[in-house]
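Late entry, S-adenosylmethionine complex.
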Amino acid sequence: MLPPVSNPASRVAAPLAIEKKFNPLNFAIETLKRPSLTGAIAPSSSFVARRVVELADISDSKTVVELGPGTGVFTTQILKSISPATDFFALEVNEAFADATRNRCPQARVYHDSATKLSHYLNVNSFGLCDCIITSLPWTIFNPHEQEQLLETISASLKPGGRFISIVYAGAKMRERGRYYINSLPLFFSTVHKTHTVWQNLPPTRIYCCSK
Ligand SMILES: C[S@@+](CC[C@H](N)C(=O)[O-])C[C@H]1O[C@@H](n2cnc3c(N)ncnc32)[C@H](O)[C@@H]1O
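Prediction complete; structure with ligand written out below:
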């Protein structure tokens, strides 16, 4: 794990470095090794990542966090959108994926740890509350108790009016845990909007945009 940042100057994002992409086959291998963590057969498409980050509207945000960056598809777009003054970090529970995101986005701060530790990493970095939290965590794998705990942590880590953006694969509503997640969102956020299905992804997905 990386140590917290004490020097504010090091919070400034460096110019975008050369992007090193993770072999898609390795994503599938990681999914097979840890099916209960990954929840997808392939990384999200760049199309979805661009749409997610556009909806997140983070160009003026002070603090942005990504949960479950996988191989860094969203991270790449997040770094293109935030300003050098934005505080940003990502939490990834799978070490191979955390390394892949670090390789692809060397200027991003990526901790190998669970999203459940969000408040801890906000505190150790003295970042305060977040303007925006972006995630493609595998919600339909988490049981109701895990979902509630994480949604509670996420909601408590956002500023009033802060945004939470997550993707939910098409068909999630047909699964009990998918329904549980979707129905839980209004209990933790004051507004919940979803996009139409975005077909340019495997699997197709909807983007949920919530605000506290
Ligand atoms: C569906 S994949 C999405 C990866 C990537 N964001 C993308 O869109 O291609 C879900 C990611 O969440 C990570 N993950 C699962 N549970 C997590 C947790 N509790 N904390 C942090 N990351 C987690 C997985 O390891 C995986 O990288």
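The pocket of S-adenosylmethionine is lined by residues 37-40, 43-44, 67-70, 73-74, 91-94, 97, 114-115, 136-138 (CB under 6 Å). Will revisit in the morning.
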